[in-house]
Amino acid sequence: MEALRGPHNIVRLIRTGATLERTGAMPVILDAFRAPPTVRWVLRGLCRPFAFLGYKGDPEMPPATRALTALGPAYIKFGQIMSTRPDVVGDELATQLRVLQDKLPPFPVREALRMVEEELEQPVDAIFSEFSEPVAAASIAQVHKARLRETGEAVAVKVLRPGIERAFRRDVDAFYLAARIIDLLAPQARRLRPMDVIEHFDGVVQGELDLRLEVAAGAEYAEVTKDDDGFRLPTVHWFLSGRRVMTQGWVDGISAGDVMAIEAAGHDRYALGERVLRLFLNHALRDGYFHADMHHGNLKIAPDGALVAYDFGIMGRIDEYTRRVYAEILFGFIRRDYRRVAEVHFEAGYVPPDRDVDEFAQALRSVGEPIFGMDASRISMGRLLSYLFEVTERFGMETRTELILLQRTMVVVEGVARSLNPQINIWKVAQPEVQAYVTRYVGPRALARDLVRTARVLSRFGPVLPEIAESALIAARDRRVTPSVRVENAAPAAIVFVAAAGGAAVGLLAGALLLAALL
């Protein structure tokens, strides 16, 4: 694999540890994660001799922010996620990391103007009557406030950082090497599939580095959420956007991270905290398309109290089958039906079939029961996640790479909701949304809808169904296999035979019903 070539990746990993040590971030991070004494001794013993190789960073920044900023965009992304979880990393470290969301050092405006002209192939003055200094600077891009010359509309112009593609490639290459080392030296961690995790992360970030994809994502997201009360998105400008530049409507409002300003403006921050969670669950379960970078820096509270989301560089998709599985798991936890939660894990293949379902249900009970009847401020999410990890390791569960984005976003969204409403109980808030999804998409209604969709698919093959049926029956005869011997071999022939013989919707529906019965 390309990412594993060259000694520069080894140097990069050594420099990572050295930077954490030189900036003073190593003890801060180890304290925040409550690392055991042995781990502290090993890590600091390995990194201290190489501290002189570490990046110095900005001495005016707090240690952790200083280290991650000096190390580059991939590390900054990690810091952004942790800034929303004071219950995991502690209030002090979370506060330090919060500046990573949109308060990083900007690059010069003249460089941004040059990139805008190159990307849009027009003089900046011909497009904009005003173009401000940077108003926000994040790990991958920065934003300028501008005004369209033709209409006078206020817009936000997002411009990628110069050389960001190469910088991110360097970081991700080192992550690939770290994943390979884990694979080789820590066999017990292979179930986490570290190489697949990094490949997934790599793919997501590469999409974020092409702003044309972000424009398309914003338009699609606006379409599927247009009927959501109290939720808005800025308008995207297709013809003033390109690979490295994106233009969208300007958003006025208060940052979701400024709790004092939200209260001073008269907004109900407790209701806002619940709305953030409910909207995310709706988008993930109902639509299968959700904002996957929903931290404080990408959310504003409009003057009318609406929640406004922007920055659509990372969006997540979940197929319908997976949405149903996760809805059943969530609903089982809400109802405290741990046996059903365990069964769903086995049915979906998340747990190896040779494990005991009753033991797994008991382990899930030990994770879920402490949550009920408690407000969020009394739940240590750090201890909960630690114990859940032990449970999954014990039962041989592998990392589901297709769900990494969903799981990561849930962590971020819960952190945002908790900052607005420290007493929020995620299970109570989630219950009506999950129950509504289960009622509609799991059970008799969903079965009837699936059968109709199956009938429609079969109907498109109506003209060729007789030929398919004849071929299947001839093949079965030649193999001397009758329907009474092996049901699974008879299923395709029986289905097409029923559909072909019926000819109309009744025959097709009968074929779909037979398929459901056989499978």
UniProtKB/TrEMBL annotation:
One of its GO terms (biological process) is ubiquinone biosynthetic process. The keyword Kinase applies. CDD domains: UbiB. The keyword Cell inner membrane applies. Residues 129-465 form the Protein kinase domain. It comes from the Bacteria. InterPro entries: ABC1_dom (IPR004147), Kinase-like_dom_sf (IPR011009), Prot_kinase_dom (IPR000719), UbiB (IPR010232), UbiB_bact (IPR045308), UbiB_kinase (IPR050154). Keywords: ATP-binding, Cell inner membrane, Cell membrane, Kinase, Membrane, Nucleotide-binding, Transferase, Transmembrane, Transmembrane helix, Ubiquinone biosynthesis. SUPFAM superfamilies: Protein kinase-like (PK-like). One of its GO terms (molecular function) is ATP binding. Pathway: Cofactor biosynthesis; ubiquinone biosynthesis [regulation]. Pfam families: ABC1. The chain crosses the membrane at residues 493-518. Belongs to the protein kinase superfamily. ADCK protein kinase family. This is 2-octaprenylphenol hydroxylase.
